Each structure stands twice: as structure tokens, then as C-alpha cells.
Amino acid sequence: FVAIVLSNHKLLSPTLINGFIIVSCMPPPVSSAAILTKAVGGNDAAAIFNSALGSFLGIFVSPVLVLMTLGLSGDVPFFKIFAQLCCTVVMPIFIGQYLRPKILPWMEEKKPPFGTIASCTLLLIIYSAFCDTFSNKDIALPRSELLTVMICVVLIQTCLLYTVFSLSQSSFCNFSRADTVCAMYCATHKSLTLGIPMLKIMYSGDPTLSFITIPLLMYHPCQILLGGLLAPKLKTWMLEEHSIPF
Prior knowledge:
The chain contains eleven helices and no strands. The protein is mainly α. Helix 2 (14-25) packs across helix 4. The longest helix is centred in the middle third of the chain and has 33 residues, at 78-110.
């Protein structure tokens, strides 16, 4: 719907509009949705499960959705896409699960700052992606289009959060408040760490790659920012449920 509106009113170039379509095909991230859900007091177990399952399925589903919606040529290296995504996403999970029981006593004794390491690694990935995109001398992006992308990302995020909240609290779904918080974060967040490697493989050698990644690069920090801003209000809303007398 957003792509149709932007295309009909010629607010953005077709490449940037394709970038928004690609954002809609991305899976949820592994960490941010689960961390925000836990911070608010939502159903963090469901958030971890949905994030992990969504990221795993995204290895296979997201490339197919991108090909179906954008109709890329048939010479896309499917095996290369799946193999590299499995190496960057699936293999670390299996290695971590294998090593966990062996190093668990050492971890409980030393308590290494894995949370800080993960945050710094994610920040480095985002920084390198921004550098790869905006250091490209071939990019000639008007400021008006960049501002339009920023506004659209914020509006999309806000509308999605409100829609998921309304549906979760409706009589049709009737979710608990903990499950509603989980749904709000898991259903609206998109993975940058999975999306950028996938796009680099699918659009290898394509001069439009830098433009296509711009919506996703802006969507990721926006979802963390809006999620963080909503966290105190959602936490208060969660506490109100426990204070309601029965």
C-alpha cells in the first residue's frame, strides 16, 4: 500500500520504493524484539521463540518473497544465498548450543559481558552498513527523498505498532497484556543483520544496491528508538494489569 502511494505520487524513486518492499520481506531480528519485550515485562519466552523461528525461516522465505514481489531475473544464486545465510545465522546457533553445556560452569563463574559484546557487534554491523552505503560516490540522493524516507519509516512504524496493539487487544485475539507487548515488538521489527548480507548476495554487482538498502538502514534504528520510547509507557500499562482488583 505504501509503495503504491509513493509510486502514484512520485514521491520517491522506484529503487527506494523497492527498498520499502524489501523491508516488508525481512524477518524479525533475533535480539532487539526479545530485549525490549523483557525490559517491559512482556512474554519474553514467546518473543525469543518468535524471533529465533522467524530468523531461521527468513533464511529461506525472505529471498523467495523478494524474488516474487520484485521479479528479479532467474540467474539469482539461490544456493549461494542459502549457504551464506546458513553460515552466518544457523551455524552460530548450533555451535552455541553445542558449547553451552561445556562452558556453562565457567560462564556462571566469570560472567563474561556477552550482552555488551553483542550490542557492540550489532552497532559495528550497523555502522559498517551505513559506511558502505553513504560512502559510495555514485549515490546522488536528493535531501528531499532522504527526508521522505525518514518520514515514511516513522509513519509505517507508528501505524504498525498501533495496528498490532489494537488487534491484540480486540475481542478477536484477546491477548494478555504480556502477549500484546510481545506481538507489538516481534511483528513490527525487521532484521538488519540478516537483510544486509542477503541483499549484498542477491544484488551483487548491481549499482542500485546502495539505494535499495537505505530504507532498511533507516528502519532498524527507528524501530529501536520507537521501541525504547514506548517501553516506559508499556511498562506502566503492564503494571496496571497487576494492580486491577479481582
